[in-house]
Amino acid sequence: MSVLSDYERETDPLSDQSRALPLGAYSDSDVFDLEMERVFRRDWIGVCGADELPDSGDYRALSVAGEPVVVIRGDDGVLRCFSNVCRHRGTVLYGVGYGNASSVQCPYHAWSYDSVGRLTGIPHAGSAVIDKASHGLVAIRLETWKDIVFINFDADAEALAPRLAGLDRYVDPFQYDRFECAPPTKEKSWNANWKLILENGMDWYHLFQSHPQSLDPIAPTRNAFNIEGSPDWTVTASRQTHATPKRGDDPPSLGDFERAHYLVFSIPPNIVFFANADGWAWLAVLPQSADRTILCEGGRFSRHQDGPAAAEMKNNDLIVEEDRVLCERIQGGMSARVGSGGQLVELDRPIKDFHHYLGWRLFDHERAEAWRTSVDPEPRSTAVGK
Fold first, then answer.
1. Does residue 302 carry a pLDDT above 70?
2. What is the CATH number of the domain that holds 60?
């Protein structure tokens, strides 16, 4: 059978196989092209943090599914997203990365645009009559959720906020706006498929083996459990070995559960974020090819730096590097012809939800049903390992 046929079968919620995807789904170029067309060009894609662009003219330019885009805060204070190409002959306008510019001029023929996308200058136009109003930068849909900026190329796609409304009950107690915004981080290029990286971010199962000195001592695999999920999003957690103590400036909504647990939230297709009492961090994956992905990071953190959880949240370079090495090693196995993926375990539930999302978006499978378990089960009730 073809890779796509196997991929379609393993993402069908009616099969209830709970198996890993075929290895070729992480390396096949035809699979990658299909994912770009039906997922990244039609769904909400997380691209940066709103707090990373606080001032008028602040922008972030990047490529999403091969499309040059720019997110910019206009002189009116509003965040917008535009196609990052000149309306004359298609030259890329803003350089990749972060910057600030109240206006931009095309380096090819000097057409210029302001921070709200209006065409403001056309030198040497001669007798040509050009309607400036119809030659502004092409707008792309943008929504902000909990400081993460999402964009969508599909003008007819459903709004993002209703889809994520169920996450509020888990996120809002942390009152993320009480934290300080972390500075923008440089993009990192990983030689691994985007799905591998996203799955790794939501995977508690590997911590005891892959992060024995860095992350597992704080939020161990043995204390991990599933909370709630669907193809839209999934929530999991681990009971921290050193729970953050109650402080006088903690918000009233921050209860014992939030102080004692490290939560992981996955939002397909490209966001995983992490929260505890001392802050939150997010990862965004931006596919470049079947075996290369740009990883972006952001977050907010507490001023308190006296606990191991806070240290982990703010100083996670070691963990990210451990994951890079691991994901690139896994990618090396994705070209195997005689190997295959096997049965998923209980802690792989977020990955199963992600696969159901892919089946829904790629193959029009029936949308899998949502599920929910106890918010705080007995210790080790769903644990793996000792």
1. yes
2. 2.102.10.10
